[in-house]
Amino acid sequence: MIENLPDFISISFAIITIVTLYFFYDILKKPNSENIRNKSNLILFGLFIWLIIQGILTLKNIYNSDGNSIPPKILIFGIAPPIFTIMLLFITKNGRDFIDSLDLAKITYLNIVRIPVEIVLFYLSVYNLIPELMTFEGRNYDILAGISAPFIAYYGIKTQKLSRNGILIWNFICLGLLINIIINALLSTPSPFQKFAFEQPNIAILNFPFSWLPTFIVPIIIFGHLVSIRKLTKK
User: Fold this and answer.
1) Could you tell me where the DSSP H helices lie in the chain?
2) How far apart are the C-alpha atoms of 98 and 117, rounded to whole Å?
3) How many whole angstroms separate alpha carbon 54 and alpha carbon 218?
4) Cα–Cα separations (whole angstroms), residue 88 to 82, 101, 218
């Protein structure tokens, strides 16, 4: 845990993480495939265990104990496994069947969680736990994806007042916004790869509960965009 940080910030982020998990579970509960619905509880259990594992690793100071490790430990034990899982889903038939069964509108609504995430990042910057460049006052415009998501989901998918290409472009833009903040976050985190923000590095994601951002919330959002892009191009 981070000392001198108001509890409401940590509690708020923990709630955001649980809400993200619930929204994703809701997507799994109502897909086109009955097989996926039957496995939704198992997937929920697996994700819950993953959050616990990441919480334990963070509280044991595994991620912030050695800033000189190559590659960074959070990359090995926290970020690489979700990326590998996403890749596995896209290259296997069962994985693609799972992806194609998900509801496009619900996946789009999921991006709303990016709004409270950005607010928490702002507060972390105020308390000197991340650089300002990681907030909407700096180089991070990810909050725009969260604000626009309900409009895209409703007018673009539910009522079909936007073209498929328009929704596809929105997904590419929002994925680009996410990749932008990921790169800035990684290059400002204390490690041999740090390139800037040395006066105020990104130390929050190496501490609980904020390690859930790169190890859970960000992979879920990336997965959602990739699923949306596949479904829109497949049609």
Assistant:
1) 7-29, 34-59, 73-74, 80-91, 93-100, 104-109, 114-126, 143-151, 164-187, 212, 218-234
2) 27
3) 14
4) 10, 16, 17
What is the torsional sign of CA 38, 90, 75, 10?
A: negative
Sign of the torsion angle spanned by Cα atoms 125, 187, 20, 212: negative
* Cβ–Cβ < 8 Å for 224, 175: no
What integer pLDDT is reported at residue 160 of this predicted model? 84
* Alpha carbon distance 128, 177 (integer Å): 23
Q: How far apart are CA 131 and CA 17, in angstroms?
A: 22
Who contacts 125 (Cβ-Cβ below 8 Å, separation ≥6)? 131, 132, 134, 135, 137, 138
pLDDT one-digit tens code per residue, 105-140: 999 999 999 999 999 999 999 998 999 888 888 888
Cα–Cα distance for residue pair 75/156, rounded to 1 Å = 36
3-state class (DSSP) for residue 205: helix
Contact 198, 234 (CB under 8 A): no
pLDDT > 90? residue 157: no
pLDDT digits (tens, 9 = 90+) for 39-90: 788 888 999 999 999 999 999 988 887 667 778 889 999 999 999 999 999 9
